[in-house]
Amino acid sequence: MPRLRQIAMVGGVETFGVAIGGIAGLLIVNVLPKDQYAAYTFLVACMTLIMGVTDLGLAHCCLPIVGQRAGEQHWVVGVCHQVFRKRWLLLGLGLLLVVPYWFYSSRQHGWSGAPYWVASLLMLAVVLLTLREHYANTVLLILSRISTLNRVAFSAHSVRIAFVGAVLLLPITSWSMVGIVLATAAASFVSVLLYRRAFRRHEVVDAHLDAESAHRVDREIIRIAKPLVLPGIFYQVQGVITVFLVSMFGTASMLAEVGAFGRLAMVLMVVDRVTNVLLFPAIARAPMGPRLSTIVAQAHVAYFAMGGLVLLTSFFLPQYWILLLGKQYASMTPLVWMVFLASILMNASGFAFRTLSVRGATAGQTYSIPVTLITQVLFLWLVGISDLRSVLWFGIATSLANFGYQYALLALRWTGWRREPAPEDAQARL
User: Where are its TM segments located (predicted)?
Assistant: First the structure.
Protein backbone atom coordinates (compact mmCIF):
# COMPACT_ATOMS: atom_id res chain seq x y z
CA MET A 1 0.00 0.00 0.00
CA PRO A 2 2.73 2.59 0.77
CA ARG A 3 4.22 1.94 -2.67
CA LEU A 4 0.82 2.36 -4.35
CA ARG A 5 0.24 5.63 -2.48
CA GLN A 6 3.66 6.82 -3.55
CA ILE A 7 2.95 5.93 -7.18
CA ALA A 8 -0.39 7.73 -6.95
CA MET A 9 1.22 10.84 -5.43
CA VAL A 10 4.05 11.02 -7.95
CA GLY A 11 1.77 10.11 -10.82
CA GLY A 12 -0.72 12.77 -9.78
CA VAL A 13 1.89 15.51 -9.47
CA GLU A 14 3.61 14.53 -12.69
CA THR A 15 0.28 14.29 -14.50
CA PHE A 16 -0.52 17.75 -13.18
CA GLY A 17 2.90 18.96 -14.33
CA VAL A 18 2.55 17.50 -17.79
CA ALA A 19 -1.02 18.80 -18.00
CA ILE A 20 0.09 22.29 -16.97
CA GLY A 21 3.08 22.11 -19.30
CA GLY A 22 0.84 20.84 -22.07
CA ILE A 23 -1.74 23.54 -21.51
CA ALA A 24 0.96 26.20 -21.45
CA GLY A 25 2.57 24.79 -24.57
CA LEU A 26 -0.70 24.52 -26.44
CA LEU A 27 -1.66 28.07 -25.46
CA ILE A 28 1.68 29.22 -26.82
CA VAL A 29 1.16 27.27 -30.06
CA ASN A 30 -2.35 28.64 -30.53
CA VAL A 31 -1.65 32.28 -29.67
CA LEU A 32 1.91 33.04 -30.82
CA PRO A 33 2.32 33.89 -34.51
CA LYS A 34 4.16 31.20 -36.46
CA ASP A 35 7.29 33.32 -36.91
CA GLN A 36 7.67 33.88 -33.16
CA TYR A 37 6.91 30.25 -32.37
CA ALA A 38 9.56 29.18 -34.88
CA ALA A 39 12.16 31.33 -33.09
CA TYR A 40 11.01 29.97 -29.72
CA THR A 41 11.34 26.36 -30.97
CA PHE A 42 14.84 27.13 -32.19
CA LEU A 43 15.95 28.66 -28.87
CA VAL A 44 14.56 25.69 -26.92
CA ALA A 45 16.53 23.36 -29.20
CA CYS A 46 19.72 25.35 -28.52
CA MET A 47 19.11 25.20 -24.77
CA THR A 48 18.51 21.44 -24.97
CA LEU A 49 21.73 20.94 -26.90
CA ILE A 50 23.79 22.95 -24.37
CA MET A 51 22.32 20.94 -21.49
CA GLY A 52 23.09 17.75 -23.34
CA VAL A 53 26.75 18.64 -23.78
CA THR A 54 27.06 19.21 -20.01
CA ASP A 55 25.90 15.62 -19.59
CA LEU A 56 27.87 13.28 -21.88
CA GLY A 57 26.94 10.33 -19.70
CA LEU A 58 27.54 12.04 -16.35
CA ALA A 59 23.84 12.23 -15.50
CA HIS A 60 23.77 8.43 -15.48
CA CYS A 61 26.57 8.07 -12.93
CA CYS A 62 24.98 9.10 -9.63
CA LEU A 63 22.48 6.27 -9.13
CA PRO A 64 24.78 3.32 -9.97
CA ILE A 65 27.71 4.75 -7.96
CA VAL A 66 25.59 5.40 -4.88
CA GLY A 67 24.08 1.94 -5.35
CA GLN A 68 22.85 0.37 -2.11
CA ARG A 69 24.35 3.17 0.04
CA ALA A 70 21.40 5.49 -0.64
CA GLY A 71 20.74 5.85 3.08
CA GLU A 72 24.15 7.45 3.74
CA GLN A 73 23.55 11.16 3.25
CA HIS A 74 27.21 12.20 3.28
CA TRP A 75 28.00 9.60 0.63
CA VAL A 76 25.04 10.60 -1.58
CA VAL A 77 25.84 14.32 -1.48
CA GLY A 78 29.56 13.70 -1.99
CA VAL A 79 29.00 11.50 -5.04
CA CYS A 80 26.52 13.95 -6.61
CA HIS A 81 28.88 16.87 -5.93
CA GLN A 82 31.73 14.98 -7.59
CA VAL A 83 29.64 14.24 -10.68
CA PHE A 84 28.04 17.67 -11.10
CA ARG A 85 31.35 19.49 -10.71
CA LYS A 86 32.31 17.90 -14.01
CA ARG A 87 29.00 18.92 -15.59
CA TRP A 88 29.69 22.58 -14.77
CA LEU A 89 33.09 22.28 -16.43
CA LEU A 90 31.44 20.96 -19.60
CA LEU A 91 29.14 23.98 -19.79
CA GLY A 92 31.87 25.97 -21.56
CA LEU A 93 32.17 23.25 -24.20
CA GLY A 94 28.43 23.35 -24.76
CA LEU A 95 28.46 27.09 -25.34
CA LEU A 96 31.45 26.77 -27.68
CA LEU A 97 29.57 24.26 -29.83
CA VAL A 98 26.09 25.80 -29.84
CA VAL A 99 26.76 29.55 -30.11
CA PRO A 100 28.07 29.38 -33.74
CA TYR A 101 25.01 27.32 -34.77
CA TRP A 102 22.74 29.80 -32.97
CA PHE A 103 24.44 32.77 -34.70
CA TYR A 104 24.32 31.22 -38.19
CA SER A 105 20.67 30.10 -38.02
CA SER A 106 19.58 33.39 -36.43
CA ARG A 107 21.04 35.35 -39.34
CA GLN A 108 19.69 32.87 -41.90
CA HIS A 109 16.09 33.33 -40.70
CA GLY A 110 16.44 37.03 -39.95
CA TRP A 111 15.86 36.69 -36.21
CA SER A 112 17.28 39.84 -34.65
CA GLY A 113 16.33 42.89 -32.61
CA ALA A 114 16.16 43.53 -28.87
CA PRO A 115 13.36 41.01 -28.12
CA TYR A 116 15.26 38.14 -29.75
CA TRP A 117 18.55 38.98 -28.01
CA VAL A 118 16.81 39.25 -24.62
CA ALA A 119 15.05 35.91 -25.19
CA SER A 120 18.40 34.31 -26.07
CA LEU A 121 20.03 35.63 -22.87
CA LEU A 122 17.08 34.38 -20.82
CA MET A 123 17.53 30.92 -22.33
CA LEU A 124 21.15 30.99 -21.15
CA ALA A 125 19.91 31.87 -17.66
CA VAL A 126 17.55 28.88 -17.84
CA VAL A 127 20.54 26.63 -18.57
CA LEU A 128 22.40 27.86 -15.48
CA LEU A 129 19.34 27.44 -13.26
CA THR A 130 18.52 24.02 -14.71
CA LEU A 131 21.95 22.65 -13.79
CA ARG A 132 21.34 23.68 -10.18
CA GLU A 133 17.87 22.13 -10.32
CA HIS A 134 19.25 18.83 -11.60
CA TYR A 135 21.81 18.63 -8.81
CA ALA A 136 19.30 19.25 -6.04
CA ASN A 137 16.71 16.98 -7.63
CA THR A 138 19.22 14.12 -7.94
CA VAL A 139 20.30 14.38 -4.30
CA LEU A 140 16.73 14.43 -2.95
CA LEU A 141 15.65 11.68 -5.34
CA ILE A 142 18.38 9.31 -4.13
CA LEU A 143 17.53 10.21 -0.52
CA SER A 144 13.89 9.29 -1.28
CA ARG A 145 12.49 12.73 -0.39
CA ILE A 146 9.59 12.11 -2.76
CA SER A 147 7.07 14.40 -1.09
CA THR A 148 9.56 17.29 -1.26
CA LEU A 149 10.13 16.66 -4.96
CA ASN A 150 6.37 16.67 -5.51
CA ARG A 151 5.93 20.02 -3.73
CA VAL A 152 8.75 21.67 -5.65
CA ALA A 153 7.45 20.36 -8.98
CA PHE A 154 3.90 21.51 -8.19
CA SER A 155 5.10 25.03 -7.30
CA ALA A 156 7.30 25.35 -10.38
CA HIS A 157 4.51 24.21 -12.71
CA SER A 158 2.09 26.67 -11.12
CA VAL A 159 4.52 29.57 -11.52
CA ARG A 160 5.11 28.77 -15.17
CA ILE A 161 1.42 28.54 -16.12
CA ALA A 162 0.71 31.77 -14.25
CA PHE A 163 3.44 33.62 -16.16
CA VAL A 164 2.37 32.13 -19.50
CA GLY A 165 -1.25 33.05 -18.86
CA ALA A 166 -0.30 36.61 -17.96
CA VAL A 167 1.78 37.00 -21.13
CA LEU A 168 -0.89 35.58 -23.43
CA LEU A 169 -3.65 37.73 -21.91
CA LEU A 170 -1.72 40.83 -22.97
CA PRO A 171 -1.74 42.02 -26.60
CA ILE A 172 0.63 39.96 -28.76
CA THR A 173 3.73 41.98 -29.66
CA SER A 174 7.31 41.25 -30.67
CA TRP A 175 8.09 40.94 -26.92
CA SER A 176 5.57 38.14 -26.32
CA MET A 177 8.17 35.44 -26.94
CA VAL A 178 10.41 37.08 -24.30
CA GLY A 179 7.58 36.73 -21.79
CA ILE A 180 7.22 33.03 -22.64
CA VAL A 181 10.93 32.39 -22.06
CA LEU A 182 10.76 34.46 -18.87
CA ALA A 183 8.03 32.10 -17.62
CA THR A 184 10.43 29.15 -17.92
CA ALA A 185 13.22 31.11 -16.20
CA ALA A 186 10.88 32.13 -13.36
CA ALA A 187 9.78 28.53 -12.79
CA SER A 188 13.40 27.35 -12.65
CA PHE A 189 14.32 30.17 -10.26
CA VAL A 190 11.48 29.23 -7.91
CA SER A 191 12.58 25.58 -8.05
CA VAL A 192 16.13 26.48 -7.06
CA LEU A 193 14.89 28.57 -4.11
CA LEU A 194 12.59 25.78 -2.91
CA TYR A 195 15.33 23.17 -3.26
CA ARG A 196 17.66 25.30 -1.13
CA ARG A 197 14.95 25.60 1.52
CA ALA A 198 14.38 21.83 1.37
CA PHE A 199 18.09 21.18 1.89
CA ARG A 200 17.99 23.28 5.06
CA ARG A 201 14.81 21.61 6.31
CA HIS A 202 16.16 18.09 5.76
CA GLU A 203 19.61 19.12 7.03
CA VAL A 204 21.27 18.14 3.78
CA VAL A 205 24.63 19.86 4.10
CA ASP A 206 27.28 20.27 1.44
CA ALA A 207 29.70 17.35 1.61
CA HIS A 208 32.95 16.52 -0.12
CA LEU A 209 34.50 13.10 -0.31
CA ASP A 210 37.93 12.44 1.12
CA ALA A 211 40.77 12.02 -1.35
CA GLU A 212 40.63 8.23 -1.46
CA SER A 213 36.84 8.08 -1.89
CA ALA A 214 36.92 10.85 -4.50
CA HIS A 215 39.53 8.90 -6.43
CA ARG A 216 37.40 5.75 -6.33
CA VAL A 217 34.31 7.67 -7.42
CA ASP A 218 36.23 9.31 -10.27
CA ARG A 219 37.29 5.85 -11.46
CA GLU A 220 33.67 4.73 -11.44
CA ILE A 221 32.59 7.92 -13.25
CA ILE A 222 35.14 7.21 -15.97
CA ARG A 223 34.08 3.56 -16.20
CA ILE A 224 30.39 4.42 -16.55
CA ALA A 225 30.64 7.64 -18.57
CA LYS A 226 33.51 6.79 -20.94
CA PRO A 227 31.40 4.50 -23.17
CA LEU A 228 28.75 7.25 -23.26
CA VAL A 229 30.87 10.24 -24.32
CA LEU A 230 30.67 9.73 -28.08
CA PRO A 231 27.06 8.48 -27.96
CA GLY A 232 26.27 11.39 -25.62
CA ILE A 233 27.52 13.96 -28.13
CA PHE A 234 25.87 12.13 -30.99
CA TYR A 235 22.48 11.64 -29.38
CA GLN A 236 22.28 15.16 -28.03
CA VAL A 237 22.49 16.28 -31.64
CA GLN A 238 20.00 13.54 -32.56
CA GLY A 239 17.58 14.87 -29.96
CA VAL A 240 17.18 18.07 -31.94
CA ILE A 241 18.09 16.70 -35.38
CA THR A 242 14.72 17.49 -36.96
CA VAL A 243 14.83 21.06 -35.65
CA PHE A 244 18.46 21.28 -36.80
CA LEU A 245 17.66 20.08 -40.34
CA VAL A 246 14.64 22.34 -40.69
CA SER A 247 16.45 25.37 -39.27
CA MET A 248 19.28 24.84 -41.77
CA PHE A 249 17.33 23.83 -44.88
CA GLY A 250 13.65 24.54 -44.25
CA THR A 251 11.41 27.53 -43.70
CA ALA A 252 10.38 29.21 -40.47
CA SER A 253 6.83 27.91 -41.02
CA MET A 254 8.06 24.31 -41.20
CA LEU A 255 10.13 24.87 -38.06
CA ALA A 256 7.03 26.08 -36.23
CA GLU A 257 5.12 22.97 -37.39
CA VAL A 258 7.85 20.65 -36.11
CA GLY A 259 7.82 22.44 -32.76
CA ALA A 260 4.03 22.33 -32.57
CA PHE A 261 3.96 18.59 -33.21
CA GLY A 262 6.43 18.12 -30.37
CA ARG A 263 3.79 19.49 -28.00
CA LEU A 264 1.44 16.61 -28.79
CA ALA A 265 3.95 14.01 -27.64
CA MET A 266 4.15 15.57 -24.15
CA VAL A 267 1.53 13.10 -22.93
CA LEU A 268 4.29 10.47 -22.93
CA MET A 269 6.25 12.45 -20.35
CA VAL A 270 3.96 11.38 -17.49
CA VAL A 271 5.23 7.81 -17.60
CA ASP A 272 8.85 8.88 -18.04
CA ARG A 273 8.77 11.19 -15.01
CA VAL A 274 7.08 8.67 -12.74
CA THR A 275 9.62 5.99 -13.66
CA ASN A 276 12.50 8.44 -13.11
CA VAL A 277 11.31 9.10 -9.56
CA LEU A 278 10.17 5.64 -8.50
CA LEU A 279 11.30 2.87 -10.84
CA PHE A 280 14.92 3.59 -11.72
CA PRO A 281 16.14 4.23 -8.14
CA ALA A 282 14.58 0.86 -7.22
CA ILE A 283 16.35 -0.85 -10.12
CA ALA A 284 19.64 0.76 -9.08
CA ARG A 285 19.30 -0.51 -5.50
CA ALA A 286 18.01 -4.02 -6.31
CA PRO A 287 20.49 -6.89 -5.88
CA MET A 288 21.20 -9.15 -8.81
CA GLY A 289 18.81 -12.05 -9.21
CA PRO A 290 15.35 -13.11 -10.42
CA ARG A 291 13.56 -10.22 -8.69
CA LEU A 292 15.61 -7.64 -10.61
CA SER A 293 14.83 -9.29 -13.95
CA THR A 294 11.13 -9.51 -13.03
CA ILE A 295 10.94 -5.78 -12.16
CA VAL A 296 12.61 -4.88 -15.46
CA ALA A 297 10.38 -7.17 -17.55
CA GLN A 298 7.14 -5.98 -15.94
CA ALA A 299 8.09 -2.32 -16.29
CA HIS A 300 8.81 -2.62 -20.00
CA VAL A 301 5.66 -4.61 -20.76
CA ALA A 302 3.58 -1.93 -19.01
CA TYR A 303 5.47 0.80 -20.89
CA PHE A 304 4.72 -0.81 -24.27
CA ALA A 305 1.05 -1.22 -23.38
CA MET A 306 0.65 2.48 -22.54
CA GLY A 307 2.58 3.58 -25.61
CA GLY A 308 0.48 1.33 -27.84
CA LEU A 309 -2.74 2.81 -26.48
CA VAL A 310 -1.58 6.35 -27.25
CA LEU A 311 -0.51 5.31 -30.76
CA LEU A 312 -3.94 3.80 -31.48
CA THR A 313 -5.72 7.04 -30.52
CA SER A 314 -3.39 9.06 -32.74
CA PHE A 315 -4.10 6.76 -35.70
CA PHE A 316 -7.88 6.47 -35.41
CA LEU A 317 -8.72 9.84 -33.77
CA PRO A 318 -6.11 12.32 -35.06
CA GLN A 319 -8.65 15.12 -35.43
CA TYR A 320 -9.03 15.38 -31.66
CA TRP A 321 -5.29 15.68 -31.16
CA ILE A 322 -4.94 18.37 -33.82
CA LEU A 323 -7.68 20.44 -32.16
CA LEU A 324 -5.18 21.11 -29.40
CA LEU A 325 -2.87 22.96 -31.79
CA GLY A 326 -5.41 25.29 -33.41
CA LYS A 327 -6.64 26.01 -36.91
CA GLN A 328 -3.30 27.18 -38.29
CA TYR A 329 -2.02 23.59 -37.99
CA ALA A 330 -5.17 21.78 -39.25
CA SER A 331 -3.47 20.66 -42.48
CA MET A 332 -1.18 18.40 -40.43
CA THR A 333 -3.99 16.08 -39.21
CA PRO A 334 -2.98 13.04 -41.34
CA LEU A 335 0.54 13.16 -39.88
CA VAL A 336 -0.34 12.95 -36.19
CA TRP A 337 0.27 9.18 -35.92
CA MET A 338 3.77 9.63 -37.37
CA VAL A 339 4.67 12.05 -34.59
CA PHE A 340 3.51 9.65 -31.90
CA LEU A 341 5.17 6.62 -33.50
CA ALA A 342 8.56 8.37 -33.60
CA SER A 343 8.14 9.67 -30.05
CA ILE A 344 7.05 6.30 -28.63
CA LEU A 345 9.97 4.48 -30.27
CA MET A 346 12.50 7.07 -29.12
CA ASN A 347 11.08 7.23 -25.59
CA ALA A 348 11.10 3.44 -25.37
CA SER A 349 14.74 3.32 -26.46
CA GLY A 350 15.52 5.91 -23.78
CA PHE A 351 13.61 3.77 -21.28
CA ALA A 352 15.78 0.78 -22.18
CA PHE A 353 18.95 2.88 -22.00
CA ARG A 354 18.11 4.25 -18.54
CA THR A 355 17.38 0.71 -17.34
CA LEU A 356 20.90 -0.24 -18.40
CA SER A 357 22.62 2.92 -17.16
CA VAL A 358 21.26 2.82 -13.59
CA ARG A 359 22.96 -0.56 -13.25
CA GLY A 360 26.20 0.88 -14.66
CA ALA A 361 25.81 -1.26 -17.81
CA THR A 362 26.94 1.38 -20.31
CA ALA A 363 29.34 -0.75 -22.37
CA GLY A 364 28.54 -1.07 -26.07
CA GLN A 365 26.77 2.26 -26.48
CA THR A 366 29.39 3.61 -28.89
CA TYR A 367 28.36 1.09 -31.54
CA SER A 368 24.89 2.61 -31.64
CA ILE A 369 26.38 5.57 -33.53
CA PRO A 370 27.18 3.70 -36.77
CA VAL A 371 23.81 1.91 -36.59
CA THR A 372 21.97 5.23 -36.44
CA LEU A 373 24.21 6.98 -38.97
CA ILE A 374 23.86 4.20 -41.53
CA THR A 375 20.08 4.34 -41.13
CA GLN A 376 20.01 8.11 -41.56
CA VAL A 377 22.37 8.18 -44.54
CA LEU A 378 20.35 5.48 -46.29
CA PHE A 379 17.15 7.43 -45.66
CA LEU A 380 18.58 10.72 -46.94
CA TRP A 381 19.99 8.93 -49.99
CA LEU A 382 16.79 7.04 -50.83
CA VAL A 383 14.13 9.54 -49.72
CA GLY A 384 15.70 12.92 -48.88
CA ILE A 385 14.21 15.83 -46.92
CA SER A 386 11.73 17.89 -48.93
CA ASP A 387 8.66 18.51 -46.76
CA LEU A 388 7.24 17.92 -43.29
CA ARG A 389 6.19 14.34 -44.09
CA SER A 390 9.72 13.38 -45.10
CA VAL A 391 11.09 15.03 -41.94
CA LEU A 392 8.72 12.90 -39.85
CA TRP A 393 9.67 9.69 -41.71
CA PHE A 394 13.32 10.57 -41.04
CA GLY A 395 12.47 10.79 -37.33
CA ILE A 396 10.70 7.40 -37.42
CA ALA A 397 13.66 5.72 -39.14
CA THR A 398 16.08 7.21 -36.60
CA SER A 399 13.89 6.21 -33.65
CA LEU A 400 13.49 2.67 -34.98
CA ALA A 401 17.28 2.24 -35.26
CA ASN A 402 17.74 3.43 -31.67
CA PHE A 403 14.89 1.26 -30.42
CA GLY A 404 16.27 -1.91 -31.99
CA TYR A 405 19.80 -1.36 -30.74
CA GLN A 406 18.93 -0.45 -27.13
CA TYR A 407 16.57 -3.37 -26.69
CA ALA A 408 19.12 -5.75 -28.16
CA LEU A 409 21.60 -4.58 -25.50
CA LEU A 410 18.95 -4.81 -22.77
CA ALA A 411 18.00 -8.36 -23.79
CA LEU A 412 21.63 -9.46 -23.50
CA ARG A 413 22.01 -7.88 -20.06
CA TRP A 414 18.63 -9.11 -18.82
CA THR A 415 19.63 -12.74 -19.16
CA GLY A 416 22.65 -12.08 -16.92
CA TRP A 417 20.61 -10.18 -14.33
CA ARG A 418 18.44 -13.26 -13.74
CA ARG A 419 21.37 -15.06 -12.11
CA GLU A 420 22.24 -14.55 -8.46
CA PRO A 421 25.63 -12.81 -7.98
CA ALA A 422 28.63 -14.50 -6.49
CA PRO A 423 29.44 -13.23 -2.95
CA GLU A 424 32.63 -11.50 -4.12
CA ASP A 425 30.71 -9.74 -6.91
CA ALA A 426 28.14 -8.44 -4.45
CA GLN A 427 30.90 -6.92 -2.30
CA ALA A 428 32.65 -5.31 -5.26
CA ARG A 429 30.11 -2.52 -5.73
CA LEU A 430 30.81 0.83 -4.10
Answer: 7-32, 38-67, 88-104, 110-131, 152-170, 176-195, 228-249, 261-280, 301-323, 335-355, 367-385, 391-412
